[in-house]
Every structure is written in structure tokens, then in C-alpha cells.
């Protein structure tokens, strides 16, 4: 099958847009604070998806990000319906977070994840109260996961 130069350029452009979206969502999930998200949540009437991860050591956490967070269908749904917050606890020195982000993540863990589960996924309402939780890697399909977030 032969592709025209325009088709190849379009595919490269779409790939670039998709990768930019993934980086943006991932960055926003890393840099937001719970207080700022609660404020936005109240204004926009969106729920908050808080997930605890060990991005460089926890296999199920890495799988959660790839299987759910980075999928185009989830990105489309979350952009319109959710605010994302990733409380990450990397172990490698190269991946260490800022002191402020470490403090925020530790505060989130004290409040929402005292057992230290990874991955641990919470759906929060506008006030920060838990609506639903997954205490490990969700065993449902992406479509089912999204439907559970809608309910």
C-alpha cells in the first residue's frame, strides 16, 4: 500500500498532537495540588481522579498509566469530565520530585492512602470526598473503567 506524502505528514502531525496531549495530561496530573483542583472542580462541576503511583518501580502502576491514563479514549473522556491528580512516589534519584510536590503527595497519602497501596485510584467529588476507589490495578476494561467513573 502506497501513501502519499500528505498522508504521511498528516499521520506524523496527528502523532505529535497525541503525544503532546499525553505529556500535557501527565504534567498537569503531576503539578496540580488538591486544593487548586477542588476549587476548579467546584467551578466546573468535574470530579477529581486521584491516583497513587510509584512511576519508576511499581509494575501495576506503570501498567495503569499505559492501559488507562494514556489511552486516547480515556484522554478524551477525562479532558471533558475529570481533573487528574497523580500522587507519585518515585524511588530513583533521577526521578525525584520537588520538595513541595513530595510534601503534597505525603499529605495526600496520609489523608487518602494510609495503607500505602499502589496503585490506588480514587474518584473524588468537588469537596474531595471519596466516591469510588480501586485498591489495585483495575481489572476492568478501559470502557468499563470509564463507565464506572461516570456512575
Describe this structure in words.
By secondary structure, the chain is of the alpha+beta class. It has one domain (5-150): 3-Layer(aba) Sandwich (Glutaredoxin), CATH 3.40.30. It contains six helices and four strands, in the order ααβααβαββα. The chain has helices spanning 5-31, 34-44, 59-69, 72-81, 99-112, 142-150; strands spanning 47-53, 82-88, 120-124, 130-134. Strand 3 (120-124) and strand 4 (130-134) form a beta hairpin. The longest helix has 27 residues, at 5-31. Mean pLDDT is 89; it is low at 23-28.
How many strands, what sense, and barrel or not for the largest sheet?
4 strands, mixed
H/E series: HHEHHEHEEH
Number of helices: 6
Radius of gyration: 17 Å
The secondary structure category is alpha+beta
Instruction: Give the quaternary arrangement of the chains.
Output: single chain
Q: Extract low-pLDDT stretches.
A: 23-28
Task: Note the beta-strand portion.
Answer: 15-25%
Kindly provide the name of the CATH class: Alpha Beta
Question: Strand order within the widest sheet?
Answer: 2-1-3-4
Q: How many structural domains does the protein architecture include? A: 1
